TrEMBL record:
Residues 363-382 have a biased composition (Polar residues). The chain crosses the membrane at residues 439-461. Residues 360-432 are annotated as: Disordered. Residues 398-429 have a biased composition (Low complexity). Belongs to the heat shock protein 70 family. This is Hsp70 family protein. It holds the Pfam family HSP70. Keywords: ATP-binding, Chaperone, Membrane, Nucleotide-binding, Stress response, Transmembrane, Transmembrane helix. InterPro entries: ATPase_NBD, Heat_shock_70_CS, Hsp_70_fam.
Length: 462
C-alpha cells in the first residue's frame, strides 16, 4: 500500500504513538501547526496503568507513583501484553483492549482539553510487522476510549513523512531510506521508497525480543553476578519477591536501572541503588556497552537484511534514520557506521519522530469528505464533524470518565455534518441565475431581426 503525504489539512488531527514504555501524542491544528500534548508538563506519557483498590484506573505517572503500594495492581507495559487476551491487575481480570483503552483515554482527555473539543480525526501508529489481529485490538481500544475511528499508519511510513515534511530532507521519487526503530519492547528495520504521492514499504525486518526493557534486564543480570554472590538471600528475594515489600523493592530497582541506562547515554558512569541490600552499585558506560553489544549487533544485522531484501546497497539510500527512545544509545551509531558503512542520522527527540510524521501522512479521504470504514473491523455512525479552530474560544470540556474495569466504556457518539445548503443551491442545474441568460439572448436576437426587416421594407418603398 502507498501512503500519501500532506502538509496541511482543514481539520484538526490527533496523532498517537502508543509505545511499550511511553506514549506520545501531538495535535495538528487547521493551519498546519503541530504541538505536542503535555502530561504533567512533559510530552511523554508512561504507558503504565494501575488498578486502584477503589475501582479507579490510574494511568501514566500516577500509575508509576502508586505501583510501590501494590505492584500486583500495576502493569508497566500493556503493549507487550497485546497477545495475552487479558491482564490480571490485583484480583481483577481485564481484557487487553480495555487496558490499552485507559491509556488512549488519557490522551483523549488531554487532546479535548487543549483543542476545546474532541479532534475530528485520529492517527494511530503501529509496528510495520503487526498483523490484522493486533491492529484490530488497537482499533477496539480506540473505540473503547471514546476516540473517533482511527486511521492506522505503519511507524516507518510515519517516520519517513517526518523526514520530508519537517526536516525538508531531499528524497526524490524513486529514492529510498531506511528506518532503524528501537523502542522499549521491540526493534524494527524498514526500507521505504518515495513515490509520486507518498511512500511505500519495500522491506521490513524485526527482532521481537530486543528493546529498552531487555537492556534493563541485562543490567540487572550483570549486577547479580556481583551482588548475588555477596548477598545471596537478599538478591534472591529482590528478583523473586515473596510479598508486597519485596515487590516494591524490585520495582524500585528497575526504576533506578532505567534511570541509570538513560544517564549513560550522556555520561560515562551512573550509580544504581539496590534496595534491601542498602548498596549503591556503580555502572560505567563501557560495562553497559558490553551488556548491550550482542543484542544491538542483532539489530544492525537485521537492518542489513532489510536493506538487502529491498535489493539495495547501503550507499543507494538517502540515509539511515534512528527513531525510538532506545536509539539514544551512542553505541548504535558506531555499530551501524562500522557494519553497514553509512553513518546514521540521529535526532534530539527520537521519541516524537513517528507521531509527528503521522499527522502529516494522509491515509485517504478525510472523514468529512467520505464516510469510510477504518482499516480493520471498526464501524461507526455518521461522518465525524470537524472541530473548532484551536486558537478560537474553548468550549466547555466534559472529561471522559475513568470507569472501573467491570464497566464497559461508552462509545463516543459522532454527529453527522450539517448539509452545505448554499453550496448545493449554487450547484443545482435549475438555479434561476443560470436559466435567465438564454432568455435574454433570445430577446435581443428578435429585436435585431425586426430592425433588419424594417430597413429592408423601407428601402424597397423608396
Amino acid at each position: 500500500m502507498v501512503w500519501k503525504q500532506t502538509r496541511s489539512s482543514h481539520m484538526h488531527v490527533l496523532g498517537i504513538d502508543f509505545g511499550t514504555s511511553n506514549t506520545v501524542a501531538v495535535l495538528r491544528s487547521a493551519d498546519g501547526r503541530v504541538r505536542p500534548l503535555l502530561f504533567d508538563g512533559a510530552p511523554i506519557l508512561p504507558s503504565a496503568v494501575y488498578y486502584n483498590s477503589d475501582g479507579r484506573m490510574l494511568v501514566g505517572r500516577d500509575a508509576e507513583r502508586n505501583a510501590r503500594m501494590d505492584p500486583a495492581r500495576f502493569e508497566p507495559n500493556p503493549k507487550r501484553r497485546i497477545d495475552d487476551g487479558s491482564v490480571f491487575l490485583g484480583t481483577s481480570e481485564i481484557p487487553v483492549p480495555q487496558v490499552i483503552a485507559y491509556v488512549l483515554q488519557q490522551v483523549a482527555l488531554e487532546a479535548q482539553r487543549q483543542a476545546g473539543q474532541m479532534p475530528s480525526q485520529v492517527r494511530l501508529t503501529h509496528p510495520a510487522r503487526w498483523g490484522e489481529r493486533r491492529r484490530s485490538i488497537l482499533i477496539d481500544a480506540a473505540r473503547l476510549a471514546g476516540l473517533p475511528a482511527p486511521q492506522l499508519i505503519p511507524e516507518p511510513v510515519a517516520a519517513a513523512s517526518y523526514f520530508t515534511s519537517v526536516l525538508g530532507t531531499a528524497v526524490p521519487p524513486g529514492r529510498s531510506l531506511a528506518i532503524y526503530d528501537l523502542g522499549g519492547g521491540t526493534f524494527d528495520a524498514t526500507v521505504v521508497r518515495r513515490t509520486q504521492t507518498g511512500f511505500e514499504v519495500l522491506a521490513e525486518e524485526g527482532v521481537g525480543d530486543v528493546g529498552g526493557l531487555d537492556f534493563d534486564h541485562g543490567i540487572v543480570e550483570h549486577l547479580g553476578k556481583t551482588y548475588g554472590a555477596s548477598h545471596p538471600d537478599d538478591w534472591k528475594r529482590l528478583l523473586s519477591p515473596a510479598d508486597d515489600r519485596d515487590r516494591r523493592y524490585r520495582r524500585m530497582l528497575y526504576e533506578d536501572v532505567r534511570g541509570a541506562k538513560e544517564t549513560l547515554s550522556r555520561t560515562a558512569s551512573a550509580d544504581i541503588h539496590l534496595p534491601a541490600l542498602e548498596v549503591d552499585a556503580h555502572l560505567t558506560r563501557a560495562e553497559f556497552e558490553e551488556i548491550a553489544r550482542p543484542p544491538l549487533e542483532r539489530t544492525v544485522d537485521c537492518l542489513s537484511r532489510a536493506i538487502a531484501a529491498a535489493r539495495l546497497n547501503p550507499n543507494d539510500l538517502v540515509g539511515i534514520f534512528l527513531v525510538g527512545g532506545s536509539s539514544r544509545i551512542p553505541m548504535i551509531s558506531q555499530l551501524i557506521h562500522s557494519k553497514v558503512g553509512v553513518p546514521p542520522q540521529t535526532f534530539e527527540q527520537p521519541e516524537t519522530v513517528v507521531v509527528e510524521g503521522a499527522v502529516r501522512a494522509s491515509t485517504g479521504p478525510s472523514p468529512d469528505q467520505q464516510q469510510s470504514a477504518p482499516p480493520l473491523g471498526q464501524t461507526s455512525g455518521g461522518p465525524v464533524s470537524p472541530s473548532a479552530h484551536m486558537s478560537g474560544p474553548r468550549a466547555p470540556v466534559q472529561a471522559p470518565q475513568m470507569l472501573p474495569p467491570q464497566t464497559q466504556m461508552a462509545q463516543q457518539q459522532m454527529q453527522p455534518q450539517a448539509p452545505m445548503v448554499q453550496q448545493q443551491q449554487q450547484q443545482q442545474p435549475g438555479n434561476r441565475s443560470t436559466m435567465q441568460e438564454p432568455a435574454v439572448l433570445v430577446t435581443g436576437a428578435a429585436v435585431v431581426i425586426l430592425f433588419v426587416i424594417f430597413f429592408v421594407l423601407l428601402a424597397a418603398i423608396l
